[in-house]
């Protein structure tokens, strides 16, 4: 069984972050492990809580993973601060994963700030250059290249080229909805691949981005190439959004188990 690690934040409500990643790893049939960088305890009735873990606690988790299991691929999600990005880069350089997928999460779908403004530069200069794939959405991509990106395939392609210049081996820009289709563009320095599915009319997509990147990480760990891994993961996330869970309290969750349920019918 392939071994996959996620380094990111705990999302108490269960839809996104580490919870989404571990649920997705299980659905994609890989062995999931986690290093928790922060605890996000969103609660619309009180104040939003974000609690950052110490670098000592982060390192202890990472070394436990390496000593007890090892890994075939690694995903990063919420890293929040410059210090956490730097310790993550240090650990990844000491134990280079066969594949590294960096989801540059900045703002959660419920509005929480998951990356401090001051940390963007560290993300760009230190983590992105060692990534095999980065998976920004349009807003994150804009912040990384300091310009607005139009909702057109041609501008997404141009943005992917600019992001590639930051040094990753490939870029997947999630373009959002264009002409009723959910469009993503992959660029690997040689060519483009466009992934499209029909856009589902719902606000209940919390966890979509995390689960998509987690599924890609799992598929790459199994040996699929990026195009195959992304195609499979796009179908997985599509089904998870189609059968979303609405808890009647704002943005609901994707249903991580729906692809498996569909294939068991
Ligand atoms: N309404 C929708 N219908 C179909 N697919 C969607 C829909 N919303 C998002 N997706 C797809 O889900 C995947 C995750 O993308 P999304 O833009 O939600 O990421 P994100 O959560 O914003 O990213 P991040 O985790 O980096 O913050 C993409 O392939 C996107 O096209
Ligand atoms: C701890 C944590 N990490 C990441 C996300 C992004 O979530 P999404 O997949 O909805 O963009 C989140 N909301 N919380």
Automatic annotation (TrEMBL):
It is an enzyme of class 2 (transferase). Its EC number is 2.7.1.49, 2.7.4.7. GO terms for biological process: thiamine biosynthetic process. InterPro entries: HMP/HMP-P_kinase_dom (IPR004399), PM/HMP-P_kinase-1 (IPR013749), Ribokinase-like (IPR029056). SUPFAM superfamilies: Ribokinase-like. Pfam families: Phos_pyr_kin (PF08543). It catalyses: 4-amino-5-hydroxymethyl-2-methylpyrimidine + ATP = 4-amino-2-methyl-5-(phosphooxymethyl)pyrimidine + ADP + H(+); 4-amino-2-methyl-5-(phosphooxymethyl)pyrimidine + ATP = 4-amino-2-methyl-5-(diphosphooxymethyl)pyrimidine + ADP. Pathway: Cofactor biosynthesis; thiamine diphosphate biosynthesis; 4-amino-2-methyl-5-diphosphomethylpyrimidine from 5-amino-1-(5-phospho-D-ribosyl)imidazole: step 2/3; Cofactor biosynthesis; thiamine diphosphate biosynthesis; 4-amino-2-methyl-5-diphosphomethylpyrimidine from 5-amino-1-(5-phospho-D-ribosyl)imidazole: step 3/3. The keyword ATP-binding applies. One of its GO terms (cellular component) is cytosol. One of its GO terms (molecular function) is phosphomethylpyrimidine kinase activity. Residues 13-254 form the Pyridoxamine kinase/Phosphomethylpyrimidine kinase domain. Keywords: ATP-binding, Kinase, Nucleotide-binding, Thiamine biosynthesis, Transferase. Belongs to the ThiD family. PANTHER family: HYDROXYMETHYLPYRIMIDINE_PHOSPHOMETHYLPYRIMIDINE KINASE THI20-RELATED, PHOSPHOMETHYLPYRIMIDINE KINASE. This is Hydroxymethylpyrimidine/phosphomethylpyrimidine kinase.
């Amino acid at each position: 069984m392939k071994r996959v690690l996620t380094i990111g934040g705990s999302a108490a409500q269960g839809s996104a972050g580490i919870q989404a990643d571990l649920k997705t790893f299980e659905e994609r049939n890989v062995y999931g492990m986690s290093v928790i960088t922060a605890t996000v305890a969103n609660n619309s009735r009180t104040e939003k809580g974000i609690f950052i873990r110490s670098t000592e606690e982060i390192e202890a988790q990472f070394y436990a993973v390496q000593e007890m299991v090892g890994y075939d691929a690694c995903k990063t999600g919420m890293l929040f601060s410059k210090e956490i990005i730097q310790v993550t880069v240090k650990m990844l350089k000491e134990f280079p994963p066969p594949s590294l997928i960096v989801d540059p999460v900045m703002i959660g779908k419920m509005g929480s700030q998951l990356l401090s403004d001051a940390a963007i530069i560290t993300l760009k200069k230190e983590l992105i250059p060692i990534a095999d794939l980065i998976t920004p959405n349009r807003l994150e991509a804009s912040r990384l290249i300091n310009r607005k990106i139009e909702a057109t395939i041609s501008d997404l392609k141009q943005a992917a080229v600019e992001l590639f210049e930051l040094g990753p081996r490939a870029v997947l820009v999630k373009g959002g909805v264009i002409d009723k289709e959910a469009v993503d563009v992959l660029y690997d320095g040689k060519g483009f691949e466009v992934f499209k599915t029909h856009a589902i009319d719902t606000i209940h997509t919390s966890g979509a981005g995390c689960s998509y990147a987690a599924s890609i990480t799992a598929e790459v760990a199994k040996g699929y190439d990026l195009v195959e891994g992304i195609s499979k993961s796009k179908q997985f996330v599509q089904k998870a959004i189609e059968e979303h869970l609405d808890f009647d309290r704002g943005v609901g969750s994707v249903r991580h188990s729906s692809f498996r349920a569909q294939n068991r019918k």
